[in-house]
Each structure stands twice: as structure tokens, then as C-alpha cells.
Amino acid sequence: MSPYDENNIFAKILRGEIPCDKVYEDDYALAFNDISPQAPVHILVIPKGSYVSIDDFGANASDGEISGFYRAVANIAREKQLPDGGFRVIANTGLNGGQEVPHFHVHILGGTALGPMLTKAA
Ligand code: AMP
């Protein structure tokens, strides 16, 4: 696993060095609208700690950070009234996963029928 890059764009957003369209913040998570939305609702949720990926987060974050983060994800989905119609949570990870920003994040996608999970099968 690559070491955490303190200059990745989400680290800069967390430090307040560049702006974001914030939708939620608590002690464990910051959430903001994706700059290039792929659905009517497309929110990114990032942990406050410096973790490269879900692999790094799961291996090295505390139980409190992990539970706080995933509770925030669920709270945001509920605040956006997504559970009734359904929604999708994605964590792109590493090269094969197409992860562009090396600070762990999940995408919350919803607001419409999202179709098949993958457009390209193995
Ligand atoms: P991923 O491929 O999972 O790493 O996704 C990174 C996501 O970050 C993409 O959906 C981008 O559109 C989004 N993104 C990149 N820069 C910003 C930014 N400054 N504010 C909001 N979203 C961003």
C-alpha cells in the first residue's frame, strides 16, 4: 500500500485549503457533493483521519472511527431520503477499482434507478 499523500485533494479539503460543497460534518466524517455528479444525488463521504483506502481504514482505524464513519454514511443517506427508493454506496479501491483520489472515500449515489452495478463484466 502506498503511504498517505498529505497533498491529495481531499486532504486539502479537510484542512480547508480548498472549498467543497459540504452537506454533512461530524467528528468522524466530512461529506460533500461530487464535483462531477453521476446521479441526481452523488455525495462523497470521507473520514477525518488520514487513510488511503478502505483497506487502510479497515486495518488501521479505531473501532470508533469505523463505526462513526459508517453511521455518518447511513445518516446522510437518510437525511437525503434515499433509503425508501434505494441507493448505492461505492468505495473504489486501488488501480483495479479505479480509485482516483488516495484518501478513503465512499460515493453515495441515488435519486434515480441506477441500473446494473457494472457496465463491463469480467
Ligand atoms: P474515485 O475514483 O473513487 O477516487 O472518485 C473520486 C471522485 O472525486 C470523483 O467522482 C471526482 O469527481 C471527485 N472529485 C474530485 N475532486 C473533487 C472536488 N474538488 N470536489 C468534489 N469532488 C471531487
How many strands, which pairing sense, and closed or not: the largest β-sheet?
Answer: 5 strands, antiparallel
Question: Beta-strand level of the residues, as a percent range?
Answer: 15-25%
> What count of domains describes the coordinates?
1
Helix content: 25-40%
- Count of helices? 4
Helix/sheet category? alpha+beta
**Order of secondary-structure elements:** HEEEHHEHE
- Quick one: overall form? globular
Give the integer mean of the pLDDT values.
96
CATH fold-level assignment: HIT family, subunit A
Report on the architecture of this protein.
There is one protein chain. It is globular, with a radius of gyration of 14 Å. The model has no long low-confidence stretch (mean pLDDT 96). 23% of the residues are buried. It has a five-stranded antiparallel beta sheet, covered by helices on one side. Helix content is 28%, strand content 20%. The protein has one domain (9-110): HIT-like (HIT family, subunit A, 2-Layer Sandwich), CATH 3.30.428. With 122 residues, it is an alpha+beta fold. Bound molecules: adenosine monophosphate.
